Amino acid sequence: MAVGSADNEFAVKLFRRLPRRYDLLAEVLSFGQNARWRAELVKHVAGAEPLQVLDVATGTAGVAIAIARSTDAHVTGVDVSEEMLEIGRARVAGAAMQTRIELKSARAEALPFGDGAFDAISFTYVLRYVSDPAATIAELARTLRPGGVMAGLDFYVPPSPPARAAWWLYTRAVLPVAGLVLGGRAWWDVGRFLGPNISGHYRRWPLARLLDAWEAAGIEGVEYRQMSLGGGIVMWGTKRA
Questions:
Q1: Where do the domains of the chain lie?
Q2: Strand pairing partners for 171?
Q3: CATH 3.40.50.150 at 6-156+206-239, yes or no
Q4: 26: Cβ contacts below 8 Å, ≥ 6 apart
Q5: Burial class (CB in 10 A: 0-12, 13-18, 19+), 241
Q6: Residue 172 DSSP code
Q7: What is the pLDDT of residues 194-236, one digit of tens each?
């Protein structure tokens, strides 16, 4: 995850309490959908046959490892949480991919890489935690070479009224309790935080506004796929030559 504004320092502290059981509980609490969403994200990155990939908000390196397994690329993963990166490095070592994957501490809003340094960029669950999503998208695109592919994944609010009502009930009532039972107080806090955070983000940044931000950053042919009745969304596009 990547957090940049003072308003979201709460989120930084919140997620720093989660690394040890993050991957298991993320799958359980998303009914196994997180893995499907990640696979869709990786498909668009791998299809570009990149040699250098940047994975932003890499967390425990799940996406970075999946990209390395699906391509011949060298993957650089960045995150603001040293606790998550520590787990990620152990996972990379366990997968015997230390020569293929490098993990660093960095913020999505100010990447320590040159213009056009990467052939492809992936990012997950980032834009809800930055003060200016459009500026962050532009910063990501800056490090992408012309013709390179960028793909992002995040939660979404289901567009159909029945699915949205079920989603609202789950995120406001079921998710906090399930988190408490399975992961303790830290996951109770996350469960209470996520639903309102997701809803608030898309009130400020509806899909049309996000698409405009991608295009303003020089990404063309932007497409998206709503998944799991709209509970998740994957977006992708190519940097204008």
A1: 6-156+206-239
A2: none
A3: yes
A4: 34
A5: exposed
A6: I
A7: 899 999 999 999 999 999 999 999 999 999 999 999 999 999 9
Give the model confidence (pLDDT) of 114-146 as tens digits. 999 999 999 999 999 999 999 999 999 999 999
Query: Tens digits of per-residue pLDDT, 7-27?
Result: 456 556 666 655 566 676 667
For the question of whether the overall pTM of this predicted structure is more than 0.70, the answer is: yes
Strand partners, 102: 76
- Using alpha carbons, list the distances in angstroms from residue 168 to 6, 157, 195: 27, 9, 7
Both tokens assigned to 113: 């890489």
> What confidence tens digit (pLDDT) does each residue in 226-236 have?
999 999 999 99
In DSSP notation, 38-76 reads HHHHHHHHHTT--SEEEEET-TTTHHHHHHHHHSS-EEE
